[in-house]
Design goal:
Layout (H helix, E strand, L loop, with lengths): L11 E10 L3 H12 L4 E4 L16 E2 L13 H10 L9 H4 L12 E2 L2 H14 L3 E3 L3 E8 L2 E9 L2 E12 L5 H6 L3 E3 L5 E8 H10 L7 E7 L19 H20 L7 E5 L10 E3 L17 E6 L7 E5 L11 E3 L9 H7 L1 H21 L8 H10 L29
Parallel strand pairs: 1-2, 1-8, 2-5, 8-16
Antiparallel strand pairs: 3-4, 6-7, 7-8, 9-13, 10-11, 10-12, 14-15
Length: 422
């Protein structure tokens, strides 16, 4: 490949304790949790909307925070952001959870929410918590000193800018900052999925009759593969999502596929597309090659370095813990990841990457960075007991109760939801 060498004089614009790259829900959680611990934090977001897949990716579903038997597992900032997502708009939280009276075999603690309203609320939330933010800005390069990140080069409307920090959180979802810093990563794959929010006159009638605009939305699609690969075109290569041409091809193919489906509608004035995703709906592009990789076989396993208990969003009873080792790599002392790029394989990666667990890993990453600064330690050497103590004080469940583990011979529901697109 031919290359050119580009040299630029880049102005130093600011210095922070912690820089978070990526403003999805995990990045928001990392930034706010670090700021609440008294750290000076900068959040860098490539779009003009926070939330990532949970907002501009149109995956507007807080998947279950409970085990499916009436016991809430995921708490902390995940529940805080769930409540924020519906504070000023519609919700679909089951009444039994609203009333604090969930039943053993009743509905799970889950909700849909208004994407635009959640975006607005997240901006207010970040600013009210003292986090500095750069919108419409992309981390384009890093400055390294050995295996330490010294600073990041950002490109935006002002041109190139340089920011320094003591700690960095990669919440890009794609491991972009880690790759630039030389942290080992693992390439994933993605099915052919492109979901949009649409509406038609029947949905409008239902919304008007109920007085609830939450009834307005329905799904439209380009590619329609589900979480498990059902519907992925036979013989079609999987999407990588980690190079510009792959992303471009994904967008072009799905826009045209979605339009072709619309062309078949006989009554074009009786329906519309309300929103299309403004980011690729890739779920599993790259993750850190961490100190530990979570596996599906780790169901019901306790980890000494757990930073949060989580539940399976698609199956009742299945419980996991997030090992701190899934967020860090020895030898890289001031960079940590969170969210979709935490280390998981197979279905365990899906369990880690959805909204509530992503928020919990982001919360843990922000707290770990703050503690590492205070302790003058590499982030992978953060005092685990202190990290767990701090997260517990923030209402995070570190270890699930063994009494919730199904006993031998008990029937468990292997798959019981309609969440395969998430």
């Amino acid at each position: 490949m031919d290359c050119v060498e580009v040299k630029k004089s880049v102005p130093v614009k600011g210095s922070y304790d912690i820089i978070v790259a990526g403003g999805g829900v995990s990045g928001v959680a990392a930034a706010v949790s670090a700021s609440r611990m008294g750290k000076k934090v900068l959040l860098i977001e490539k779009t003009i909307c926070l939330g990532g897949l949970a907002t501009i990716g149109l995956i507007n579903l807080f998947v279950p925070l409970c085990n499916g038997r009436g016991v809430q597992i995921i708490k902390g900032m995940a529940e805080e952001l769930l409540q924020l997502s519906v504070k000023y708009g519609y919700d679909t939280i089951p009444d039994c959870w609203k009333n604090g009276n969930p039943t053993k075999d009743g509905p799970r603690y889950v909700t849909r929410y208004s994407v635009p309203i959640f975006v607005l609320a997240l901006t207010e939330f970040i600013k009210s918590e003292g986090v500095s933010i750069l919108y419409d800005s992309v981390v384009s390069d890093v400055a390294m000193e050995g295996s330490q990140v010294k600073g990041v080069v950002v490109v935006n409307k002002s041109g190139f800018e340089y920011y320094t920090a003591g700690m960095f959180v990669d919440a890009t979802g794609d491991g972009d900052l880690m790759v630039q810093a030389g942290v080992p990563t693992v390439q994933g794959r993605n099915f052919h999925t492109f979901m949009m929010h649409g509406a038609d006159t029947e949905m409008c009638k239902k919304a008007a009759e109920s007085g609830d605009l939450g009834n307005l939305q329905h799904w439209a699609s380009g590619g329609n593969a589900n979480l498990y690969g059902g519907g992925h075109p036979e013989g079609k290569p999987y999407w990588l999502g980690t190079n510009s041409q792959d992303v471009t091809n994904y967008v072009v193919e799905n826009h045209i596929e979605a339009l072709n489906k619309l062309k078949n509608d006989k009554d074009k004035v009786a329906r519309d597309i309300l929103r299309i995703p403004t980011m690729p709906q890739f779920r599993t592009t790259r993750h850190i090659d961490g100190n530990y990789t979570l596996k599906e076989a780790d169901t019901y396993r306790h980890f000494d370095d757990s930073v949060g208990a989580i539940c399976d969003f698609d199956r009742r009873d299945f419980l996991y813990e997030i090992p701190f080792g899934t967020l860090v790599r020895d030898g890289f002392g001031n960079i940590i990841t969170a969210g979709r790029s935490a280390a998981g394989e197979g279905y365990a990666w899906d369990v880690l990457r959805v909204i509530p667990p992503a928020i919990i890993s982001g919360q843990a990453a922000g707290v770990a960075c703050a503690l590492a600064i205070d302790e003058k330690k590499p982030v992978y050497g953060t005092d685990i007991k202190m990290l767990q103590k701090t997260l517990t004080a923030q209402n995070v469940m570190i270890h699930f109760d063994d009494g919730l583990v199904p006993k031998a011979g008990e029937e468990i529901t292997v798959q019981e939801s309609n969440m395969e697109h998430f």
